[in-house]
Every structure is written in structure tokens, then in C-alpha cells.
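testing teh design pipeline on a random one, pls ignore if ur not involved
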């Protein structure tokens, strides 16, 4: 099995796990039982309980939904924005291309994770703000790639 096939298989398994979370999760991930908090793994709770007495495995299964939703949304929005900006930059060229490329260089000058972390810190903690911060820092790769291809074809 080739490397990309293994990666595709892992993503498929996570996507199926997220899709069928209500049937796969052995317990309610939001159930709180403070009496049994930090309990070790048992037959009924394979990964044990967390500090609130919630089943860790159920939280992981349901957490896959949020993680994959953030990942897919970020990639799709970033690809669309990068495709649009990169193609317009290459097509019009001149000053437009120079301004867009300097903007991309400025964004590349900051570490993407730290910039996203600062944006989430400024905007507040929410999934929407996380996706927004990740999109604002990751469209540049798509834009540079598309710009290069459009310049090659032009």
C-alpha cells in the first residue's frame, strides 16, 4: 500500500467515525459524573474518564466531527480565496501582481500558527473564529501556486 493510500484510508476512517459518532460512541460525551472522575480504563470505559467523569473515548469520537469540520472548511475557503486572488494577480500583472505578492510576503513573514493564535485571542474563542484565523493565514499557499500556474499558461 502506497503512502497516499494509507493517508486516504486514515482520513476515510476518521470521516466515517465522525459521521457515525452517535452509534459508535459508547456513552454520552457530555455526561458528567464527578464521583467517578479520573477513573482508569475499564471494560465499559476503554480510555477511562476525564476530570469531569466524562468518557474519554466518546469525547474523541465526537471531537472528530469538530476537527474534520474545521479542517474541511478551512481548506475549501482557503483554496477558493487563494484561487481567486492568485489568478487575478497573475492575470492582471503589473502593480496588482506586485501588491498581492508583497501582501503574501508579509503574511509569510509571521509564523502562521502564531498569527492564527493571536487572531483567535483577539476575536474570542469560537469555532468560527478559529476557521477565520486559519483561513486568513493559509490562503497564501494556494494563491502562490495558482499565480505560478496562471503565469505559466499565460
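output:
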Amino acid at each position: 500500500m502506497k503512502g497516499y493510500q494509507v493517508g486516504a484510508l486514515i482520513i476515510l476512517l476518521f470521516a466515517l467515525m465522525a459521521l457515525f459518532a452517535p452509534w459508535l460512541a459508547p456513552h454520552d460525551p457530555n455526561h458528567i459524573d464527578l464521583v467517578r472522575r479520573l477513573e482508569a480504563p475499564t471494560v465499559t470505559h476503554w480510555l477511562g474518564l476525564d476530570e469531569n467523569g466524562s468518557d474519554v473515548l466518546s469525547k474523541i469520537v465526537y471531537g472528530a466531527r469538530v476537527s474534520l469540520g474545521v479542517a474541511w472548511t478551512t481548506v475549501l475557503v482557503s483554496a477558493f480565496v487563494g484561487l481567486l486572488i492568485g489568478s487575478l494577480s497573475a492575470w492582471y500583472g503589473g502593480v496588482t501582481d506586485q501588491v498581492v505578492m508583497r501582501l503574501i510576503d508579509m503574511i509569510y513573514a509571521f509564523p502562521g500558527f502564531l498569527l492564527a493564535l493571536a487572531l483567535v485571542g483577539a476575536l474570542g474563542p469560537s469555532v468560527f473564529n478559529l476557521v477565520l484565523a486559519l483561513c486568513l493565514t493559509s490562503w497564501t499557499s494556494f494563491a502562490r501556486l495558482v499565480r505560478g500556474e496562471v503565469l505559466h499558461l499565460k
